[in-house]
Write a structure and sequence with these properties.
Elements: H1 13-38, H2 48-62, H3 68-75
Amino acid sequence: MPEPISQPWWKYGHVWLVISGPLVVVVAAVVTAWIAFSQQDPVLAQDYYRQGVNINKTLAAQGSLAPAMQGRNHAATPAGAVLQK
């Protein structure tokens, strides 16, 4: 009986299947690291809380705060529709 012919490791498909899993993870980690280090994080203002309080005061002074149900219904109204009171 003849001996089976051995092939190099790269000619077996299951080897590439085993290698491809960790390789995909490494590529995803490199892409994630590149995104994280290439974009600058936004910086909050030192007085962000005071600015938010002032915005809320301005909105309350305008009297434009609608009740939640009315605001939700108005947001779902098609453009150009006439609202009746």
